[in-house]
Amino acid sequence: MRIAISGTACQGKTTLIKDFLDQWPSYKTPKKTYRDIIKENNLDHSSKTNKKTQWDILNFMIEEQQKYRTGQNVIFDRCPLDNLVYSIWAEQQPDNDIDEKFVSKCIPLVRESFRNLDIIFFTPITKVSPVAIEEDDLRDTDAEIIESIDNIFKAVHREHENNPKTTFFITDDKPAIIEVFGNRNERIQLLKLYIDAEGDAHETGNILDEETLEEMKKLQEVWKDVDPEETSLIKKEMERKIAEDKRKERLNNYR
Length: 255
Known about the structure:
By secondary structure, the protein is an alpha/beta fold. The chain contains 9 helices and 4 strands.
């Protein structure tokens, strides 16, 4: 399968890829990433990005994806979805040369690039599993910017799920977009619900959403006065059942 990890800055994407490769060694990840393009060409990036940066990165990402065919196991650090989201964000900022015309030029390329992906695992900002912001010379550490970009990711995800006339995706040939969050172990356990031991796909759907989490919170009232050791297995099974029910409800939204 061809998989990408996407999301706003400082959400543990690099760590998730490392843990993924440890769990599924049949996968590989390209040695060269968009980060190398930024460094090699000394490009302005992140909140200071511009048309040249976004265009160079988009073309690099598309060319990199095209090297892999259906049936090959590869995981990418970000994909053209990330590039488009950052361009949409930049278009809304004052004194940026990215405009609506540029974004419109990019959308058809991004849409077509999704044919070369099977699953996008999206790492959203979520209250249940906040990730600490760490300094990095190739990422934004401004919490407001990070959240603004996350909001655009979430809006695109909603369109992917709910809009049959979507602007950003080819309706009958789009990758699944699956939210994944939690601590390092929890993320891998979530991925195992979609990827089997050999690295092939289970049927895909969005497992844990805010509605599911609210149901889980209600269960805490039941468990709070009971010995945790005696109920741990029951608790895990109830959580698994809720997640499985949600997955089944959404199977038809994905190929």
